[in-house]
Specification:
The protein contains 19 helices and no strands. By secondary structure, it is an all-alpha fold. The two termini are 108 Å apart. The longest helix is centred in the middle third of the chain and has 122 residues, at 295-416. The protein has helices at 2-14, 28-33, 73-112, 114-123, 127-142, 194-206, 213-240, 269-287, 295-416, 420-466, 475-484, 489-496, 500-505, 510-526, 536-547, 561-574, 577-585, 590-594, 596-626. The radius of gyration is 63 Å and the shape is flat. It has a domain at 449-626.
Length: 627
């Protein structure tokens, strides 16, 4: 980046003063690399140029106009090549740095995580070598003296061209080995040195895994000695006489060994550990040539160990017996507690049964008394009704007798006056009928007038509700209907059922309802695939999938969102708002939440229409009553 910025600067300094205009055509890479108020310095001074020094301008000198020269194609091409080279270098540098950081991070994660270690060493090139190198470095850092142990086995590399030879006398032989003379234990040696014993004790204390090393070493030494003893006589006999396969074998010489300890109490861990330790000691002593000297102490130790095993077994049996006694006592205590608990439970149950029986008897007595009181009240009411019925019958009979008497009197009077009184009565009756008819017709006319006015007011409300293209309030029309109803409870109840918001602000027209339904249907289709507990990802997925869903045509059957929307739209086009609202009310989840406002508007429209229908029906009923 620094070089690409210095190169154009050098060209500008080496060019004459009048040829600075072509610097405007620098490459975009050089222009981007130069920041405002940024200075660059060259590593070496520029060579002196032979360009003439421009004259200092004065007030009298005429400055010729500067004509910008066109940049040459070669200069533009060189700048483009430099820019491309710089981009490639930066890309290569960033790629190397990114790869190095990624590789180093992979090695670090492989040292920290076992799962990533397996993946990195198996699939990344040279990943296993890098991880092993850093693991060795970490091991040597933690254990700097690990490579300086003197007891490490030096493995000499085997020559590739040298053949492997096996001696003729190597291996086992069929002859019996002879025992060598036993060594004297009383002689001075490492076994009599306390320092050596202390060193061995420290070594064994430092390394618990090497405690059985003497036993293993003694077994190996014994096997090696027996093999050597078998080899030497076998070689001598082979030299002295030939081997005959038909000759009988000589009996083997019995080796003097100490018998290992065997106990019947093998299931006790302490006894097993003692027997194992003692058998290891016996094995070490048996490996010695003078093992017969230690047979008496070993036998005594065996007896002591057997006694100890018997003592441990006796203690274990006593402990088992004591534990069994405790368990038996606990069982007896538990049985006694269980019997006591059962006895208490029986007492409590008997007490509860007695209490329930007393409560039952008390409730039964209360019910019997209440039933008797009820029967008494019913009898009193029946007696009162019978007396009242009897009195009514007596009154009816008295009225009937009085009517008969009046009728008989009238007959007698009419007979006496030759029928004049009857004519007067008929005339009076006709006059009364005329008066009643006149009064009734006036009431009918008033009622019809009120009914017609009420019908006109209802039609005015309906025209405002159904024929207006926008939402208009109809408070005045509704007040007129209420005044003309003359405190009719049915009309008052119908008006009270209308939401105040509906007649104060108006209700949407059918066109507005259909347009709003189409907008709501689009939003419902977007949320048709959402579950109830959907998140942001579910909303985005439902929005994308709703774009590719196919719309159904015709009469669609089914409970899915698309079928419900299609049926609702058909019902709205037919003008059946009630059925359309019922269809939309069957939606579930987010679809129902999104259509909640639209359902509220439709519900207000239906409430207003239902109230108007009730008022119109009441007006018709009033007309029928008058007729």
């Amino acid at each position: 980046m620094l070089r690409s910025s210095i190169a154009p600067g050098r060209q500008l300094l080496s060019s004459p003063a009048r040829q600075r205009i072509p610097s405007q055509w620098l490459s975009k890479a050089g222009a981007r690399s130069r920041l405002p108020a940024q200075r660059f310095f060259a590593d070496s001074k520029l060579p002196p140029t032979d360009a003439p020094t421009p004259a200092t301008p004065s007030s009298q000198s005429v400055v010729p106009p500067q004509i910008p020269t066109k940049p040459t194609e070669q200069g533009t091409t060189s700048h483009l090549d430099d820019a491309n080279t710089g981009r490639f270098r930066r890309f290569l540098l960033y790629l190397i740095l990114t790869s190095g950081f990624a590789y180093g991070g992979g090695v670090f994660m492989a040292l920290k995580s076992d799962n990533f270690h397996d993946f990195f060493t198996e699939y990344v090139p040279y990943g296993e070598e890098c991880v092993l190198y850093f693991e060795e470095r970490d091991f040597y850092r933690r254990f700097p003296n690990a490579s300086r142990h003197s007891n490490r086995i030096q493995v000499t590399p085997r020559e590739e061209g040298k053949p492997v030879t096996i001696p003729s006398n190597s291996g086992l032989s069929w002859t019996v080995a002879k025992e060598e003379p036993a060594s004297d234990v009383s002689k001075s040696g490492p076994h009599n040195s306390a320092k050596v014993h202390d060193a061995q004790t420290k070594t064994e204390a430092a390394k618990p895994e090497d405690r059985n090393a003497p036993v293993i070493k003694a077994k190996e030494d014994k096997a090696a000695k027996s093999a050597k003893k078998e080899e030497k006589p076998a070689a001598k006999e082979e030299e002295q006489k030939p081997v005959s396969l038909d000759a009988p074998r000589q009996p083997a010489v019995a080796a003097s060994t100490i018998e290992l300890l065997q106990t019947k109490d093998g299931d006790e861990p302490v006894v097993q550990q003692l027997v194992k330790t003692f058998n290891d000691i016996v094995t070490v002593i048996s490996a010695d040539e003078n093992s017969s000297k230690y047979s008496a102490p070993v036998a005594k130790a065996k007896e002591e160990l057997l006694k100890i095993g018997e003592t441990i077994t006796a203690l274990r049996d006593e402990a088992k017996q004591a534990a069994q006694e405790e368990i038996n006592k606990a069982h007896a205590t538990f049985d006694e507690s269980a019997r006591e608990l059962i006895r208490r439970f029986e007492d409590m149950r008997n007490a509860e049964v007695a209490q329930f029986r007393e409560e039952f008897e008390a409730e039964r007595e209360k019910l019997a008394l209440a039933y008797q009181d009820k029967i008494k009240v019913e009898l009193q009411r029946a007696q009162a009704l019978a007396e009242q019925r009897l009195q009514n019958e007596l009154v009816e009979q008295a009225i009937e007798l009085n009517r008969k008497y009046i009728h008989e009197v009238k007959d007698l009077v009419e007979r006496e006056r030759e029928g004049r009184l009857s004519k007067l009565n008929e005339l009076t009756a006709n006059i009364s009928e005329l008066e009643s008819l006149t009064t009734g017709w006036s009431n009918v006319i008033d009622t019809n007038l009120k009914t017609q006015q009420l019908q006109v007011a209802v039609d005015a409300v309906r025209s405002v509700v159904e024929r207006s293209e926008t939402s208009r309030p109809f408070v005045r029309e509704l007040v007129a209907v209420k005044e003309l109803a003359a405190d009719d409870p049915v009309v008052d109840a119908a008006i009270a059922s209308i939401n105040p918001t509906a007649y104060q602000r108006g209700i949407p027209s059918p066109t507005q309802i259909i347009e709003r339904f189409r907008r709501v249907a689009g939003e419902v289709r977007k949320a048709s695939l959402l579950p109830e507990d959907a998140g942001i990802a579910s909303h985005a997925a439902s929005l994308v999938l709703s774009k590719v869903m196919f719309k159904k045509d015709g009469l669609a059957d089914g409970d899915d969102v698309e079928s419900i929307l299609l049926r609702t739209e058909n019902l709205l086009e037919e003008g059946n708002l009630d059925a359309a609202a019922r269809e939309m009310n069957t939606l579930q989840g987010w679809a129902k939440i999104l259509s909640k406002d639209w359902l509220g508007d439709v519900r207000r429209v239906l409430e207003v229409k239902q109230a108007l229908e009730v008022i119109e029906t009441e007006a018709r009923l009033q007309c029928l009553r008058v007729e």
